[in-house]
Automatic annotation (TrEMBL), chain A:
<dbReference type="InterPro" id="IPR050123">
    <property type="entry name" value="Prok_molybdopt-oxidoreductase"/>
</dbReference>
<keyword id="KW-0560">Oxidoreductase</keyword>
<dbReference type="GO" id="GO:0003954">
    <property type="term" value="F:NADH dehydrogenase activity"/>
</dbReference>
<dbReference type="InterPro" id="IPR016457">
    <property type="entry name" value="Formylmethanofuran_DH_bsu"/>
</dbReference>
<dbReference type="GO" id="GO:0015948">
    <property type="term" value="P:methanogenesis"/>
</dbReference>
<dbReference type="GO" id="GO:0018493">
    <property type="term" value="F:formylmethanofuran dehydrogenase activity"/>
</dbReference>
<dbReference type="GO" id="GO:0016020">
    <property type="term" value="C:membrane"/>
</dbReference>
<dbReference type="GO" id="GO:0022904">
    <property type="term" value="P:respiratory electron transport chain"/>
</dbReference>
<protein>
    <submittedName>
        <fullName>Formylmethanofuran dehydrogenase subunit B</fullName>
    </submittedName>
</protein>
TrEMBL record, chain B:
<feature type="domain" description="Molybdopterin dinucleotide-binding">
    <location>
        <begin position="14"/>
        <end position="114"/>
    </location>
</feature>
<dbReference type="InterPro" id="IPR006657">
    <property type="entry name" value="MoPterin_dinucl-bd_dom"/>
</dbReference>
<dbReference type="Pfam" id="PF01568">
    <property type="entry name" value="Molydop_binding"/>
</dbReference>
<dbReference type="GO" id="GO:0016491">
    <property type="term" value="F:oxidoreductase activity"/>
</dbReference>
<dbReference type="InterPro" id="IPR009010">
    <property type="entry name" value="Asp_de-COase-like_dom_sf"/>
</dbReference>
<dbReference type="GO" id="GO:0043546">
    <property type="term" value="F:molybdopterin cofactor binding"/>
</dbReference>
<protein>
    <submittedName>
        <fullName>Formylmethanofuran dehydrogenase</fullName>
    </submittedName>
</protein>
Length: 415, 134
């Protein structure tokens, strides 16, 4: 076995304890990773070819064609980025600026508001290492790490022994799930660990908990058991180091973040609570931080000369829905898989470029496809974990495919 | 053609909630175009009462439709302790995304995890394949 440890880029947990076996330059075994991580590291069965209009070609020609599409467009969309290295993301921002384009990532329709609130210091947060060493009360709210981040509970949140958590999960940690169904994570949280609420019931539950923490009688229109709510408030009050792992179940249910801010303020007046967004893709947080440094916004940006425009109208969803863009470059994402079919159908009407290690639904409709190395396996770089910690990535094997950063650099040079 | 072809199928309105599944995710990473990914994605988890209302048996296929589109998926009983008639669960995938409404109220965030469909017996139609979606 290779004595080095590597990082898995299968999800935003970026597990950095991965062992691999390599024979004849090929990866033969992957140790430590979860089922999803092993599949990710071993690579897909359908690698992407370099093509222009469905015909195989060399990368140089594909790069030239991609640059020509972007040059000829008035409002190109540069979208994806959540599965890209930070280096590729920074060049993507430069390409959007150079072409007066729209730039957006998957956080636009998932964890964007939470990451934004954290970057702007509106929500108290901590690192996953803090969680491992200190956390005693864990709330999985609308999140299901047993499925989305399979090693979350074993590596960081529930099961590991940490500096201040030496007695094991049975005694040292309390895990709670607040969800609309009994998820696999809820099963792990045990008999009384699930607080099952109705769909869209999150805001009311949050407000009722805030009342309970203030010593008032908690009420919900769906008559959630008051005794259980008061019991939960008691657990939260006693926490020495509490963490809320906010999932999309919670985020999508909130009309705005005011109830969450009130709840966190109240919690932090009686105990100590932090929030970590359960970002899925390995470098979504990286894109948010990189764009924020460049523009002051985490996503949904349109460049217009020296001006930077921002707002929901510049989101990938609204830009495609309203047919505002006239070409698209997709890197590190598969919008045809992850967005409503009725919205992404428009991508078939405009010149489309896809950069990815694998064939995707989006690549099947692209005019230009450019393969790149699988980041973390075939190429290195950096990424930012879901908790904001930067992680260095190094390649496990060699490849003759260009890294995602190099592909973007080549396109930029052609511009 | 069986006699059942001439009977009208009951239509049941369902609220769909989507979720994540690690095995489906791994199947996607291995092969987006593979059978395993289709098998784990094109499935709906129903309450036993809704299965009865729809006059179907477990593992029959159902047509799910709304203004955004229509797909055929396999019906499975959820097995959740807490009954949930009227609410059904689907793993997040290109199949569920066919049904997610386009209208996002100008927010840029479609209702991925909470939308309505009308379900009815597909009378033996095949599950929608990934190639039919794109
Ligand atoms: S939990 Fe995520 S980062 Fe860790 S091994 Fe699994 S897929 Fe990879």
């Amino acid at each position: 076995m290779d004595n080095d440890y590597y990082v898995c880029t299968g999800c935003a947990l970026l597990c950095d304890d991965i062992g691999v076996e390599i024979e004849g330059g090929k990866l033969t075994k992957v140790h430590t990773a979860c089922r999803k991580g092993v599949a990710f590291i071993k690579g897909c069965r359908h690698p992407l070819d370099s093509t222009v209009k469905g015909e195989r070609t060399d990368v140089d020609l594909a790069v030239k064609e991609a640059a020509s599409i972007l040059k000829n467009a008035e409002n190109p969309l540069i979208f994806g980025h959540a599965n890209s290295s930070s280096g590729a993301q920074k060049i993507a921002i430069g390409i959007a600026r150079r072409t007066n384009g729209y730039i957006d990532d998957t956080s636009s329709f998932c964890h964007g508001p939470t990451v934004e609130a954290i970057i702007e210091s509106k929500l108290k947060t901590c690192t996953l290492d803090d969680v491992r060493h200190k956390a005693d009360v864990l709330i999985f709210w609308g999140s299901d790490p047993a499925n989305s981040h399979p090693r979350h509970m074993s590596r960081y949140s529930y099961f590991p022994r940490g500096k201040e958590r030496q007695r094991g999960w049975e005694e040292d940690r309390t895990a709670i799930t607040i969800d609309v169904r009994k998820s696999d994570t809820a099963e792990i949280c045990g008999k009384n660990g699930l607080y099952q609420i109705p769909v869209k019931g999150d805001t009311e539950f949050m407000e009722a908990l805030t009342s309970a923490l203030s010593g008032k009688v908690p009420k919900t229109s769906y008559d959630f058991d008051k005794k259980r709510l008061l019991e939960l408030a008691g657990i939260l009050k006693k926490a020495k180091f509490g963490v809320i792992f906010a999932g999309l179940g919670m985020i999508y249910s909130l009309e705005d973040f005011e109830p969450l801010y009130r709840f966190m303020d109240k919690l932090n007046s009686v105990s100590s609570f932090h929030l970590i967004p359960m970002a899925g893709h390995y470098n979504m947080r990286g894109f948010n931080e990189n764009l924020f440094k460049e523009t002051g916004y985490i996503n949904r940006v349109k460049f217009n000369g020296a001006e930077v425009l921002h707002g929901p109208e510049y989101s990938v969803v609204e830009a495609l829905r309203k047919k505002e863009v006239d070409a698209a470059l997709v890197i590190g994402a598969d919008p045809l898989s992850s967005l409503p079919r009725s919205i992404v159908r428009y991508l078939e009407e405009i010149p489309l470029i896809t950069i990815d290690p694998c064939q995707t639904l989006t690549s099947t409709k692209a005019d230009v496809t450019i393969p790149c190395a699988l980041v973390g396996v075939e190429s290195g770089g950096a990424a930012i974990r879901m908790d904001g910690v930067e992680v260095e990535l190094k390649p496990m094997v060699e490849t003759d495919r260009l890294s995602d950063e190099d592909v973007m650099k080549r396109i930029m040079e052609e511009l | 053609m069986g006699f059942g072809q001439f009977l009208s199928s009951p239509e049941v309105k369902l609220r769909i909630v989507t979720y994540r599944d690690a095995f489906q995710d791994a199947a996607k990473v291995e092969s987006l175009f593979g059978e395993e990914y289709e098998r784990l994605s094109a499935t709906i988890l129903l309450d036993a009462k809704d299965i009865t209302k729809l006059s179907i048996k477990e593992n029959d296929t159902l047509i799910l439709k709304n203004k955004s589109g229509s797909i055929v998926v396999k019906a499975v009983e959820s097995g959740y302790e807490q009954p949930h008639p009227g609410t059904a669960y689907m793993v997040n995938s290109p199949w569920s995304n066919v049904l997610v409404p386009e209208e996002a109220g100008g927010t840029g965030v479609p209702a991925f995890k909470d939308f309505e469909v009308v379900a009815s017996n597909s009378k033996g139609a095949k599950v929608t394949g990934i190639k039919d979606i794109v």
